[in-house]
Amino acid sequence: MIRRAGEFWTERKVAWYRRALERSDYAEKILEVLAPLLPECESALDVGAGCGALALPLAERLRQVTALEPAPAMAKALRERAQAGGLKNIEVIEAEWGDVPVAPHDLVLCAHVGELLHADAPFLREASSVARCGVALVRDAGQERDKFFFRELYPLWLGRPYVPGCDDEETVERLARLGATPTVTFVSYRSDQPFDDLEEACDFWEEYLGLGGEPFRQFLRAFLSERLVPEGQGWVAPYAKHAAVIWWRVDGQVK
Fold first, then answer.
1. Tens-digit pLDDT profile for residues 238-248
2. Which pLDDT band, with edges at 50, 70 and 90, does 3 fall under?
3. Per DSSP, what are the bridge partners of residue 111?
4. pTM reported for the whole predicted model
5. 108 CB-contact burial (10 Å; exposed 0-12 / middle 13-18 / buried 19+)
6. Which of 26, 102, 234, 240 has the fewest other C-beta atoms within 10 Å?
7. What is the CA radius of gyration of the chain?
8. Is residue 192 within 8 Å of residue 198, measured between CB atoms?
9. 100 bridge partner residues
């Protein structure tokens, strides 16, 4: 069964994610790769925009941005961040791709939305139909690092290995079969997760693993105190990520 985005993203998870974004160089690295395409664009459609990791900095550069985001907590956070930043040129549509009609935009962007970017996803074929200038996709690249220590925690507490995907290659292969020849650039960026204290960090791992109870809590306190990095009065989970930025100009190749 596929879990819809709104079932995963609670307001607390979004708040944690926002804090990581605030200290990340993710947007800077992605938009730097897209620098050859952006001067040709006045508008962008960000599909699965989240809380605005790319939609908001794009709105600072372009005339108009539409953010398509199905998770209510993410859409709410995006609207709040746009309002706080005085950005009036961004429209947030709370829907999934395919649920509502979308107007053509110069740039169509989709970052880290696995269900839209896998080899059989219709989005890869459909994106060019609403893009005037180009399409850009962002996927995790290479062997995924031990995300939040999941490689250790999954076998211990969930009884199964943590098996992240290496997904950029399947997307590029599918685009080639569709007739596209994208530019692929690999970037590295920081996605460190800060916490006010160790108890908040324990809350984070309980939430993401779906586990609780005092035995697990006691384990987490000891486990995390040995792996998190102290920062001021708080703690940080260091997380270096790698991504493939896959983009092409629309010229009628993709059918």
1. 999 999 999 99
2. very low
3. 138
4. 0.92
5. buried
6. 240
7. 19
8. no
9. 97
